[in-house]
């Protein structure tokens, strides 16, 4: 698959790609030293394979361990990673390889964007969420005390390696979480893919190789196409935020990852975006029910989990309005005319949003 960055780059989707990393990095980036950034868990699982493969291609790997999960995406995490890169004497002809989930990819991508005004980054995502969504598109970020992903840069990778085999060690909850973003691609622009997922979602979650490959490839193609049209999110790319304004509010109320993972929040958010679309007469109620059924089927949440029942609808609304995707306090949401037909809707009435939030368990 070819994707558009500052220049086009290849996204490889397949099995055993981490063992081929050396040759692929060599031909895409031609770096000499490669800082392989991963968390302790992913490093223990896959670090050696990447290391061996880079060495076999004549490259010098420099393994670097960062914090696990969202905790990695902090000012401190960025500072210490940049410090290690400086101490290891990496120069502009070298590269960073992000080996891990979306958190590692976001942090390492931002460090690469900043290091000596930018060095090559290779994304080697090891979660379904990162393979299907975050590794392609060039968005990198860390969190600030004021909110998630507020400090970042667009920094496109030179190469993306989605090794489907790496997903074998991912736990089921993380698999489901990534599946929410896969489903999102069907919901926002590809009805046939949504219908395929209705029939084959369980096989994807069971990591059946062919089903998994189709799900990741279709998601990557959809993302690459949207990003190519709108690299800096001036228009159509906003559709990728389907389910994210609702989802982000729930995710924040749940302390980011403590109650709901990002994907779980996105799944709930997609259900609510369709419920609101139906309530506003944009799409019919059957479509919204169908989305809800597809989400429920996979074990992803369609209502707030017990720990978030009774959360204030006002608090959620405030978060939705304050979301960085909102413009001037008005509520701008990604809604849908039907499955596969998402669009940006401005000036959405907060009352209708409140009703949907209450239906979902808020008070
Ligand atoms: P994550 O990166 O936090 O990883 C979750 C956990 O999975 C970690 O504990 C990690 O050690 C473990 N793990 C990763 N790969 C594994 C494997 N193959 N086997 C076993 N364990 C493995 O989670 P995530 O869901 O991948 O990423 C979430 C982050 O992605 C969020 O910070 C979100 O903001 C970001 N994101 C970014 C974009 C973007 O466009 N840049 C898009 C969506 C999400
Ligand atoms: Zn997301």
UniProtKB/TrEMBL annotation:
Major subcellular site: cytoplasm
Cofactor comment: Binds 1 divalent metal cation per subunit. Can use either Co(2+) or Zn(2+).
Keyword DNA-binding annotated: no
Cofactor(s) needed: Co(2+); Zn(2+); NAD(+)
Keywords attached to this entry: Amino-acid biosynthesis, Aromatic amino acid biosynthesis, Cobalt, Cytoplasm, Lyase, Metal-binding, NAD, Nucleotide-binding, Zinc
Annotated EC: 4.2.3.4
Pathway where this protein functions: Metabolic intermediate biosynthesis; chorismate biosynthesis; chorismate from D-erythrose 4-phosphate and phosphoenolpyruvate: step 2/7
Localization annotation: Cytoplasm
Binding site for NAD(+): 68-73, 126-127, 139, 148
Membership in a protein family: Belongs to the sugar phosphate cyclases superfamily. Dehydroquinate synthase family.
Name of the protein in question: 3-dehydroquinate synthase
Organism: Peiella sedimenti
Native organism taxonomy: Bacteria, Pseudomonadati, Pseudomonadota, Alphaproteobacteria, Caulobacterales
């Amino acid at each position: 698959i070819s994707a558009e960055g500052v220049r086009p780059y290849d996204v490889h989707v397949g099995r055993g790609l981490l063992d081929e990393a050396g040759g692929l990095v060599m031909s895409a980036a031609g770096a000499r030293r490669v800082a392989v950034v991963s968390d302790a868990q992913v490093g223990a699982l896959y670090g050696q394979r990447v290391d061996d493969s880079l060495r076999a291609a004549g490259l010098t790997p420099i393994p670097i361990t960062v914090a696990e999960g969202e905790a990695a995406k902090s000012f401190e995490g960025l500072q210490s990673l940049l410090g290690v890169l400086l101490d290891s004497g990496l120069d502009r002809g070298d590269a960073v390889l992000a080996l891990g989930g979306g958190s590692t990819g976001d942090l390492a991508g931002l460090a690469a964007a900043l290091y000596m005004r930018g060095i090559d980054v290779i994304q080697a995502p090891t979660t379904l969420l990162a393979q299907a969504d975050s590794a392609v598109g060039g968005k990198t970020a860390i969190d600030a005390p004021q909110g998630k992903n507020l400090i970042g840069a667009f920094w496109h990778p030179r190469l993306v390696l989605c090794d489907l085999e790496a997903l074998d060690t991912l736990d089921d909850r993380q698999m489901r979480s990534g599946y929410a973003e896969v489903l999102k691609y069907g919901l926002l622009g590809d009805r046939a893919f949504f219908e395929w997922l209705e029939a084959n979602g369980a096989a994807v979650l069971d990591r059946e190789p062919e089903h998994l490959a189709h799900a990741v490839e279709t998601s990557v193609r959809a993302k690459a196409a949207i990003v190519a049209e709108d690299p800096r999110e001036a228009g159509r790319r906003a559709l990728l935020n389907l389910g994210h304004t609702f989802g982000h509010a729930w995710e924040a109320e749940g302390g980011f990852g403590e109650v709901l993972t990002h994907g779980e929040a996105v799944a709930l958010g997609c259900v609510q975006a369709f419920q609101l679309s139906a309530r506003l007469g944009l799409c019919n109620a059957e479509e919204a029910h169908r989305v809800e059924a597809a989400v429920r089927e996979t074990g992803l949440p369609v209502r707030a989990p017990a720990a978030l029942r009774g959360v204030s609808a006002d608090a959620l609304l405030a978060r939705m309005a304050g979301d960085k995707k909102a413009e001037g306090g008005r509520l701008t949401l990604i809604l849908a005319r039907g499955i596969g037909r998402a669009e940006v809707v401005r000036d959405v009435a907060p009352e209708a949003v409140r009703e949907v939030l209450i239906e979902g368990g808020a008070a």
